[in-house]
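## retry 2 of 3
previous attempt timed out at serialization; input unchanged, resubmitting
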Amino acid sequence: MGSFSQLATKDGILDFQHLELVLIVFLGNLGCKSGTMKELRGFCGTAVVSVVVAIGRVERGLFFKQEMELSLIGLQNAGKTSLVNVIATGGYSEDMIPTVGFNMRKVTKGNVTIKLWDLGGQPRFRSMWERYCRAVSAIVYVVDAADFDNLSVSRSELHDLLSKPSLSGIPLLVLGNKIDKPGALSKEDFMEQMGLKSITDREVCCYMISCKNSTNIDTVIDWLVKHSKSKN
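## retry succeeded, writing output
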């Protein structure tokens, strides 16, 4: 008879939703013919069953830990640092200090630990974007959807970055931020202005968000979690 982890494995992935069934199989081999958790507790004692269930929970926590590393890039004042703070704490502040160079922050969401590289968007820092985007789980490109004067620059910088061979195939999440502002672009217009449909060499996703109002922030977090990498 294998371990609890082995018995609860399905296609190489631990499936602790079947832990109760696994427990029944184990105890059945010990002579217990009971079929319910209540009867199992009567057979071998509540303490033993509780310990086994607790072990399963610990194993689940160990084996399902996820991690991801991603880079947040975009022009200055796009709202990258605000996005990091909203994801990490749910808080928003109008008085954000522009990122000089880069900042790194770790955020934990459930079993997923996200390492966020917040890269400066001023022209003198854009040359280092590629270096910090290599081998990440995803690239997150943040754009001020209400800043029409800089949309063409933002588009040009994005497509130039994606042309780098070292970044081939890395999933891309483009966020049109500040949709709370009057006159902000619709999603359709934003995607057209950014030329997103022409990007065909990788997975591309686009959401319109507001860090100020937390619009679609949960959706962004869900996307990030789904693109995390297993540590086991």
